[in-house]
Amino acid sequence: MSLSPSSRTPGTGLRFAVVGNPENRRTTMFADAVRAAGHTEPRVLAWRDVLRGRFAFRPGEFVRIDSPGENAEVDRLLRNTDDPTRVEGTALWYRRFTAAVRDVTGAAHRAGAVPSADAEDVAVMFDKRRCHARLAAAGVPVPPALTGPVGGWDELREKLRAARISRAFVKPAHGSSASGVVALSVAGPGRVRATTSVETASDGRLFNSLRVRQYASEPEVAALVDALAPDGLHVEQWLPKASLNGRAADLRVVVVAGRATHAVVRTSRHPMTNLHLGGARGDLDAAREAIRAAGGGFDQVLDAAERAAACFPGTLCVGVDVLPSTGWRRFAVGEVNAFGDLLPRLTGLPGSGAEGLDTYAAQVAAGPAAVRMRETTPVRMSEAPPARTCKANPVRTRETTPVPTRETIPARTREAQGAPS
Questions:
Q1: What is the mean pLDDT of residues 354-373?
Q2: What is the pTM of this model?
Q3: Fewer C-beta within 10 Å: the chain N or C terminus?
C-alpha cells in the first residue's frame, strides 16, 4: 500500500496539534496537509506562548514540534537579541530551545499525547559536534572533524595544521541555515581565504547576509573566527563536492518513519548550497545518471540518509544532507536537520510510499501509526529512558517516543528509483 492521495482515509479521528509560529509557512503548509487528508483543523500552540509556559496537550493528540525560526519575538525570548540577523547568541538559544523541547515532550507524554520528536534527538541534532560523533559511532560516513573545543583563530590554525587539513568548514555548533558557516582555506602563513554569508560590522558584531562574500586577509579571518568561537565551533574537513552542470552539488533527503521519501539536489557556484543563499534546485534525474555513470546507484544516497536517520529513532521526520564526492562515487552525511522538511512543491520519490505527497502530507499520513504504537507501548514517565542504540542500518529501536516504521511507509521498490520524480 502506498501513501498516495488515493489511499488517504479521511475521518480517522486523529487530532493534530502544532507547536510552531502561527504565521510561518511551515505551520500553514502542515495545516493544509492535515485538512487535505480529511482530519480536523490542527490546534496551533504558538512558540511565544510555549516559551512562557502557556500550553497544554490533550490525550491522543499527535503533537508536531516545528521550527521556532523566522519570528523576532521568539528569537528574542531564546537569545536576548532584538535583531534576528545577528549571528551571535547561539549557545544561549540552544540551552533555552532544548529546555523548551524537553518541557513540550514531557507535557505531551504526561497528557497521553504523542510528540513528533524526541527531546534528546533534537538536542543532538542541534549540536553539530554531538551529531557528528553519534553518526560516526554508528558507522555512518561523515567528513573527518576536529575533536575538542576550539577557542579561537590561533587554536584553530594549530589544530588544522596538526590534522593536516588545509580546507575546512567552520560551523557554529548550534547554528542552522548556514548561519555563521565559514568555508576556510589555509595555504600557508598569511595565505587564508574565508567564504561566508557573515557580514562583519565595524564594531565587530556579526550579521547574517543573503550575499556570500570572501575574506582574504588573516586579521579579518582571525577576527571572524574569534567572534564565533565563544558559542562553540564544529570544524570538519571540506570534502570536494561533485558537480552538476558546472556547479557544486549536494542532496537534501527527507526521511519519514525510517524511509527516505523525498530528495532534492541543491547546486551552487560557491561552497554553501543553501537555497536561500543563491543555491538552486538541480536536476535529480541528472544526478541519478551521474551516479550510474560512476558505477553506483541512487540507493547509495538513500541508504546513507536512512542510516543517519536511524540514529534518531524517536523523531518522525529528519532532513539529511548527503554530500557526494567528486565524481559521484562516494557519499558522506554532512548534517541531520530536525526541521529539514521545508521543500515546497516537492513530491515523494517513486517507490518511497509517498508518491504524490509533499513532505508534510507524508508526515500526516504516518501520524495514525505513530499514535497506535504509542497506545500499545505506553510511556511510563517515572522510568528513565532506555539506553540508546544507534545502528548502522535503518532498523529502528523502540524509544520513549515510538514512531511508525515499515508498517506505515513500505519498503521502497528498488527498481523504481530510476524513474523520474
A1: 92
A2: 0.87
A3: N
